Amino acid sequence: MQIILDENQFDAYQSDLIRTLLSQTCLSLKEIPQLHDVDKETLDDICENIVFHFCNVLDGSKAINADNANVHLCFTPDNGETLVTHEGGGWSHEYVFGAILELEDE
Q1: What is the dihedral sign for C-alpha 60, 23, 10, 76?
Q2: What integer best gives the mean pLDDT of the chain?
């Protein structure tokens, strides 16, 4: 499999990832009985915060400890033919806040 550097395609995949994570996280939160009475704005805030912190790890902004070493993850989408990446960590966490409003418009 080929690895390509393509910042524009990488960015498009990050945006798709954010929409998917927000959508799936919101669906999951709505299934929790204890949250059924929580207003939509609060539920959206909870969802965005969860996805934001997850993306900090995925972007490499927050290291994980694996085998007593600090490891930074690297989001590398696989489109079936190539792995798409760019130099440096991701920035998907920057897209999280406010993106939930875009989902409602779709």
Answers
A1: positive
A2: 86
